[in-house]
């Protein structure tokens, strides 16, 4: 079962997650090749976490590689771009080398299948042993990345990156890391805030069917943690 950590509100959740993320980065840099590999997420809690990390001292960003759990088929400058939001909240503010920011390279006119193959090759090159941490937001229906209930992307069992052509949330075209890709992370943390997500949070805590609740299928090799504010924990 996933670990459950409850906080009074979103601010407290973000502060705790930022402290833990800094710790995970430092630990990863003390072993292996000295690099930390983190998958970023968007959404309200995810971007708040990135903003909090940008203000923290003592993180060696020069030895961090960042990846993305999903992306919309829009240019980075588009307000809908996850990479663009992450750059504004964190990446453009800290000393992370440009070549260590592994964006999905979409531009609004991309060949989605080719882009999926290309990004999976990127993961195999730069994160061959997986990720130290995969951060996830979650929708009220339990979607994570661009894995929505009862979708082919959620049912994928082999590929690490797939194109999504029919996202119920616009824009319809996206790339997404899959549940097998998420499972390559040592730690998987879900950042969940608000009463509208309480039912989905309970489904994750109970390890319900991932086809119905995709977030319930997100599991880390060493740990899976639900970071919940009190509203999101209301159905537990």
Automatic annotation (TrEMBL):
What CDD domains has UniProt attached to this entry? Answer: 6PGL (cd01400)
Q: In which pathway does it act?
A: Carbohydrate degradation; pentose phosphate pathway; D-ribulose 5-phosphate from D-glucose 6-phosphate (oxidative stage): step 2/3
Could you tell me the keywords of this UniProt record?
Hydrolase
What does the record give as EC number?
Answer: 3.1.1.31
Reaction(s) the record says it catalyses: 6-phospho-D-glucono-1,5-lactone + H2O = 6-phospho-D-gluconate + H(+)
- GO molecular function annotation: 6-phosphogluconolactonase activity
Q: Name one Pfam family in it.
A: Glucosamine_iso
Q: Which residues form a coiled coil?
A: none
The segment(s) forming the Glucosamine/galactosamine-6-phosphate isomerase domain are 9-224
Source domain of life is Bacteria
**Entry similarity comment:** Belongs to the glucosamine/galactosamine-6-phosphate isomerase family. 6-phosphogluconolactonase subfamily.
Instruction: Report the function annotation for this chain.
Output: Hydrolysis of 6-phosphogluconolactone to 6-phosphogluconate.
Instruction: Give the protein name, as stated in the record.
Output: 6-phosphogluconolactonase
Q: Which gene encodes it?
A: pgl
């Amino acid at each position: 079962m996933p670990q459950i950590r409850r906080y009074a509100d979103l601010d407290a959740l973000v502060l705790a997650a930022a402290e833990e993320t800094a710790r995970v980065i430092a630990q990863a840099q003390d072993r292996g090749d000295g690099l930390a590999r983190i998958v970023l997420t968007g959404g309200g809690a995810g971007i708040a976490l990135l903003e909090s990390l940008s203000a923290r001292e003592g993180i060696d960003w020069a030895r961090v590689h960042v990846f993305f759990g999903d992306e919309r088929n829009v240019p980075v400058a588009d307000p809908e771009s996850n990479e663009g939001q992450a750059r504004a909240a964190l990446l453009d503010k800290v000393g992370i080398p440009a070549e260590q920011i592994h964006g999905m390279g979409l531009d609004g006119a991309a060949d989605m299948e080719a882009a999926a193959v290309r990004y999976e090759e990127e993961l195999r090159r730069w994160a061959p042993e997986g990720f130290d941490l995969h951060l996830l937001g979650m929708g009220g229906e339990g979607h994570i990345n661009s894995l929505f209930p009862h979708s082919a992307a959620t049912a994928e069992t082999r590929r690490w990156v797939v194109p999504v052509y029919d996202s119920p949330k616009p824009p319809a075209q996206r790339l997404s890391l899959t549940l097998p890709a998420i499972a390559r992370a040592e730690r998987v943390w879900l950042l969940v805030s608000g009463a509208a997500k309480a039912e989905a949070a309970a489904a994750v805590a109970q390890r319900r069917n991932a086809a119905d609740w995709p977030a319930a299928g997100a599991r880390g090799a060493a740990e899976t943690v639900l970071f919940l504010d009190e509203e999101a924990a209301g159905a537990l």
